[in-house]
Every structure is written in structure tokens, then in C-alpha cells.
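ok here's LamG-like jellyroll fold domain-containing protein:
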Amino acid sequence: MPGGAPATITGAGSHWPLTQGRFGSALSVPGGLANWAQVWPGPWRRNQPLTGFAFGLWFKPNSVTSGLGYLLTRQFNNADLSYGGTSLTCAVRNSSTWDSLWVPYTFKAGAWAHVLCSYDNTDRSLSLYVNGTRVGRSVISAFAADGLFTHGDGQPLGLGNIAGTTDNLGRFADASSFAGALDDAALWSRPLSAAEAAALAAAPQALRPSAGSVLTSALLLRPAGLRKARDVYAVAVNWTTSAGNPNTLLRVEISTDKGATWCRVSNGVPYTDDVYGGTALGTCFFPTVSVKVRVSWLAPATLKSLAVQLYGTAPAAPPRPPVAMGLNLDGPVYYSRLLPFADAWQAGGGSDWPLVRAGVDARGWPLALDPALDDPPGSSYWVAGRNKMLTETQGTHPAGTYTILINGSGTVDIGGDGGGATLTAPCRYLYNITRPGDWGIDVMMTRSLASAPINRIHVFMPGQVPAPVNGTAAGTVGLPPLTPALSLPPRSFFNRAFLSKLTAAGVKRLRFMDWGNTNGNNMARWADRNTPSSVSQVANRVRRIPISTVTCTAPSAAVAANASAFVLEPLRVYVTTAVPHGLVTGNMISIMGTNGRLRYSAGGVSYNASHNTPPYMTPMVLVTGPNSLAVSLASWETPQGASITACTPSSNGTIELQISPGVSYEVMISLANNIGADAWITVPHLADDDFVTRLATLTRDKLRGKLYLEYSNEVWNWIFTQTNYASRMAALEGATAGDRHLAWMARRSVRIFGIFDRVYGESVARQRVVRLIAVQQGSGEPQLAAAQALAGAGARVPVDALAIAPYFGANNDQVYPSHTTMTTDDILDLARYDMSTARRDVMRSTVQLARQYNMSVLAYEGGQHMGGAGGSCPPGCENVDAMQAKFIAANRDWRMAGLYDRYFRIWGAETGGAPFMAFSFISGFGKWGSWGSLEHMNDTEANSPKWAGMLPFFKGAPAAPPPSPQPAAGH
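and the structure:
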């Protein structure tokens, strides 16, 4: 009984027998409505202080029934714990209020369980715990000012069922009762924390088992006091025995993976792993949010006390290893939060001006725009002439006056956060935004006169208008100078806040993969790229090529064989053009306006189709001559075994080639130079040798820092066009299936590296250019073997580094099966486990592989990787909103800062601090992933856990501060 108080038996028998209890002997309750035990006087007093209280006990039901039985109650009608076979209820009452918390829970007959009810008046929360785990929580009504338990000081504490026939006891007369055993009933005049609840269920107050006995705790959850800490850096266990040396009598172990693996700990000594100055990593892992304790008796002894401490800072953390940190920059699109340019127009989107009937000039501006001609009702042309910018920033683009400059003759409509207006060009217009929102700014060119077409539009951020060409005389537009191709734009080209963010962080490496629109880029020739003076830095280019014929018969056996190797899809057709098409093998095109038809069959069913490419399909072409090509007209739904049975040739039609070149290389180089950073450039997968030579010349002449040189991006990942292209090119050259795309990528990479060596001069290139091959983590041998074959047996491979993307996290397949019950804590636990095991193994194996070829290791991308598509979720993982919300919450949790600190410490230790390009800089979180280190331009390390975790590695900050232990549990 509580405090050793005696109990009075009421009902059948003068006493109840004792039985084997959880901790020694227990009270055996026979059941029956009229049978109960009472402690007089009760240990709870009238007008209990309103700080709160708790009460609980161990119980073991004889059977699981649906009836209601009372386990523990403060008579009369003040507080009780009742068990209903498949439910558990805690009820509390004072003179004016009665509240209860009911949870469904099925206990096991014949098994001990610990139940606890805790009321915390600071937030009026009532919590129920079973075996140390909270199973329910409810906010209840405020109690009256006279406090709790108003039925007098002497009211008894009842154990076992209380008779249900007495109205003033308020019991249910349902002919049910509790039968079983009760042990270690306890009451507290304060609320208990989750950690204390776990401790109560974890171990007894005093045990004296024989040698060989083992006691394992329930799960001890991270205490509330550490919830806001970035991590739990160590765990310490302190224990004592009634006599003898506790360190020789008992072996104490901890588990930080919920009992899967165990590590022995020393009494009172903080345990951590080698990342933070502790034991070398083996099978034991570092705790995030929970820990279990196991005690083994080496000899007979009485365990007197045991307490667990978790540390919010590392007890003896070594200095952070140096890491050559860098960043992947997010693509500057109209809905991006990156805001890299002083002129927002440079990242504007939605323009299809290349489709105007008059055509465009060399910089991409329409030669004329007349709504009556270019966008009449029913027209096949869609000319929006519209550029959206600063959209979906969640209102974080700057408030203030935007300066809009327009050169040429015509009209432009403005709309957005600052209202609407119609402008007549040329003009200089001040557009004021007082409350930025998600609309941003829209700029729609409605008319451009052929005699003097509009050829300049700028939308400068507040306070960032550069000096004009001819001063600032009143009445002039005041246009800034244009930067010609092969020259670098000035520092004023960039948003000052963007530059400041990079320089303040100390960023010294920038990967421009997304700036170059690398994935699926259709650009093959140097003339196709954007320059600093293009219509914008994200402008698209469109070419239209007239068709002469489309037939279903190959002009020769050789063409048919090549088409069979490269054009893998069915429904292959052969096209001739009225003029040289200028395409390259691998270009993605659309075909429209043809007059021919074909018929094909699949599985015994016949289908009709035109010679146009299906909607949303841009198939890859095989160039067979200056005026000829082969292509497939299959759609996603076309069966692979489909075959053409009849074909009526076409004698007209149009090929459309759309190119999205991305940001100009001059702008990339200028940014790197302005912040003193190295540049990581990815060469488009279709780029011809002339393109590569000119790019090498530009970087040699203009880039001040080092160049990291990569062929395309992830030419192993089948979601990207470039991997498909590499596989088809390998097949065209006669390679069989398997890893042919990897070997082809390596050979193309080596050829590109050779061009750069010739342009730079080999000795200079070895100082300024890092030649790298990026591989899927845990792989790389096919690429390196191909590179070695080119170099010759025994020769040095012409590659400097092997690059991987060692992302860590909880993946969709791990989380989805339990996503409705899995918590943020669980997701962070999985992420830490992955980082400390699989990712660390990948780093080590990659270093070993690279050393075999006398190469170094890099990370082309990395960081957390949680959310988005992929996995086996039935509706598509990206559409499981509840799961994606938890991934987003994990990314915003401050423990993510601790995970990033640990992650980069591991990378630094395993690779010697090799360059690491974190992905990414600034982007929003959503169902496709939470990639940004920052979510908005104006975020800081104070509200961005990932940025806070990586920033010290950019800055080379010292180790963590001294330890700050906080008790998690004790008993």
C-alpha cells in the first residue's frame, strides 16, 4: 500500500490472499461488486494544491472482459482509474467539475501492466500512460478555486472494485468488477513527466534477484526539457546497490535503437560514439529521442537506485573536422524563392514569345507583337507575352518601390501585389508593393511595334537600379548597359541580399547544375545557349522546321538497323525536312500538322493514329542525314509489342524543337568570381565538341577560382533523359544491355576532359580543373573500368575524383506502413540510424574504390532526403499528405540541426574533409521534398535548423560548448 499504510478488506472474506507480485507480494482481488480494500485515512488531502497530481499502480487481470472494474480510486467520487477489458479510463472531480479521459486499450490476461494517470494544472492536461508510454492526453475543464477532492480530508483510497449500487459513490451498477492482482499503488501531489512515467514502468525501487537475472526497462522517451535541443549527444546511467560494489555486481547496458542492439556503459560515465569523442562506432548507436536500459546481475545484489541522464550538448566533443563545403543553387524560375538577380525579370517565366508569327531577334525578343494577328480566336498560336516573377515566395520578396524600365514602342500591362497598370513604352515606371504576397508581379506585353519593337524590360528590386548608360537625365528611361556574350556581368547584376547571404556564410563552392537546366537539356550547340544579354536568363528558344515527308518505311537497311538500336519504342517513322533540320541525335522534338495516318496492332487489337507525336510526348530523334531523321510516334499507352500494319505517308507538317538553355555561363562565372568561389559546371549531355571547346575557353579566360567539371547530371538515374540517351548511344555503338549507359557516360566524360586539357594546357588544367565522374552511391566500378580501358592497362585514369550523393533519411517504404502512427521522433530516429550505418558505409566504400584508381572523393549533392515520390505507397508516395507532413515537420525540427552536425562530422572523418555540395540553398518544403537549407531568402540560422547545422562547417566554427546534463529518468 502507499507508504506502507494498512488496508481494510470489505466484502467476502476477512482478508485477501497475497500472490506473486511485480515487486515481491501483491494483493489478490477476488472480484465482485461488494469486494474492495480501503486505506483509512486516505493519503490525499482536501483542497489539494492546484499544481496537479498523479496516481498509478501495477495490475494483472485474471481475464480480459468487457465489464468495468475499478483499480484505484480516491473515494468518494474524486479520482479513479478503471479498467474495462478493452479500455482504460482516468476520471477526476471536484465540487463543480467532473472530467475523464478514455482510451481504447486491450491488456493481456495474466500479464502485469503499469498504468498511471497524471493531471498537470499548468495546461489543464490529463494524461494516461501504459507501461511508461503515453496512450492518451486531453485538456479538461478548469477546477474550481477550492481545489481538488472536496469531500473531506478523511476520504479513503479504494483498491479493487467499489460497489456499484451506492448512488453517492457514483459507481456503475453494471454487474462487472475487477479480478486480478494489484501491486505498488502510488500517489503524487504533483504531475509526473513522460520520462518519470517511463521510469516507473522501467524498473523497481529495490530488486534482489539471483545472479544471471536480467531486467530490461520500458522505452524512456526524451524528456520535455530537451525537446528544443538540437540533439541528445550522450547518455549516462548512475546506479547503486545496498551493499557491495555496484560496478562488479551489475552489468548495465543501454540501447538507442529500441532494444535491437546493446552497449555496456560505465557507472556515471557519459556514453557517446566516436563522432563526439566516445567509443568507436560498432553495433551501438547514438540516441535521438529514446533509450532503453538493461541490468544484468553478475552476483546476488539489491539494486537500490538507477537514474538515466541525457545530455543536450556533447560532453567532450572534438573540434569539427574541416569540410570543403559548397552549395547546389536552386534553379532561378519565376516561382523560386532564391531571388538571385537584382532584375527580377531575369528569372521571369511563362513567356512563349518565340512562337510569334514575326519571329524573334538574336536575343529572343519578338520582332513584332499584334494581338489581332498573334492571338486571334481559334489561333493555333498561343502568345502569352507574359512573364510572372516573384510568385509563390510566401510574401518574402522585398516590399518597396520596384523600378520598371521598358525600351521600344508598344504597350505592357502590369499586375500583381502592387495593383495593375497599362504602360506605354518607352517608359520608366515606379511600382510600389507595400504588402508582398504570393502573386508577385506579372508583366504582359500586349503590343510591340515592328518599326521599333520592345527589346528591353527590367524589373529592378527596391534600391537596386544600376547606373544608366547616359546618366539619369529627367525624361529618359535610364537603361543600364547590356553585357555582351563572353563578357561577365557586373556585381550589380545580382540581388544584394543574395550575395550577402552567400558571402556571410563563407560559401566557397557553387554547383550550377540547376542553373544550367541540366536535366533533360535539349541544347547541343553553342549558339543555342543564353548569354548575359538574352531576353532573360531563363528564356526558352523554339525552332520550327518544315516537313517534306513522313513514311513508315526505312530508306535503307542500315538506317533501319540504327533506328532499331536507338529508337527503342514502337511505331518508328522516317521523316525528311524541306530544309536542313540542324538537329542532333538525342534531341527531343514534337511533330504537328501532318496529313498522314498509320494503323497498328497490338495483342490482336487494331488502332489508328496520325503522324503527329502524341500530346505531351517529345520523343528522342535519331539523325540519319542533314534532312532526315527517325523517331517514334508511340505514346505512354502504346504497347511495347505494337507493330505498324498500314501507313499513308504525310507530305506536310512541322517539327518543333524547344530548348531551355538555363542561365548563361557568363552569369555563373560572374557570381563565383564575385563571392570568391569555385564553380561546379555540368556540361549538357547533347553538347557537341565545339560547344565543349568554347566552354573550356570561357572558363579558362574568365573564371578566377577552380572549376569542377562534370558531364551532365546523374547519368545513372533513369528518371532523367540523359541516362536514356547514354543507353541508346551505347546501343547504337553496338553495346549490349546492362550497364552500357554507365560505360558510355565514362567515355564521353573522358573525351570532354581531354578537350579541357587541350584548351587549358594539361599542366594548368591539373591545377585549375577537377575532372570528376558522378556515380550512384555504392557504385562506380563500371564507369571507372571504362575510363581505365580508355587510358590503357596500368595507366593513370584521366579522372581526378569520384563523386557521390550520400543522402540520408527515412525513406518512403520505411515510413508508409506505419505513417498514421509514426511520429517525428520515429522519423528522426530512422534518419540518424541510416546516417550512422548505411551512409557511413557508403562513404567508406567509395573512398576505398577511389583509392584503387588514385582518385579523391566528392559529394556532388547531399543532405537529408525525405519525402517526394518513390516507394510503394499505393496512391503514389507524394500524395500521402499525412506522411509528407511528417517529413516536413522533421525538416523543421531543431534536432535536424544536430543531425546535420553529426552528418558533416562523419563526412569529414571518413573522407578527410572532401568537398561536399549540399542540396540545396533556398527552396520551399512540399510533397516533392524539403530540399532547401533555407525556406526563404530572409531566413537565418535562428529559424532554419539545417542551415544552422551546416553553417559552422562553412565558417570553420569551433566545437560545441561544454555539457549540460539534464535528467531523463530515475527510480
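+1. The radius of gyration is 36 Å.
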